[in-house]
Design goal:
about 55 residues, mainly alpha, about 0% strand
Length: about 55
């Protein structure tokens, strides 16, 4: 998951992508994976906001 967030940061920082979940959590997703996603989302949303040109 971290790799995917890292991939999206440059585009999101320029306003070209809003980091979010674009679909529902799949049924096979574990609760611990969902918790990790939420933690990474908060981390990268903050990081993206700090590097944004807006």
């Amino acid at each position: 998951m971290r790799t995917e967030f890292e991939r999206l940061v440059p585009t999101a920082s320029k306003g070209g992508y809003f980091i979010s979940c674009d679909h529902q959590t799949p049924p096979e997703g574990s609760y611990s994976d969902y918790q990790l996603y939420c933690a990474l989302f908060r981390e990268y949303a903050e990081k993206t906001g700090k590097t944004s040109a807006h």
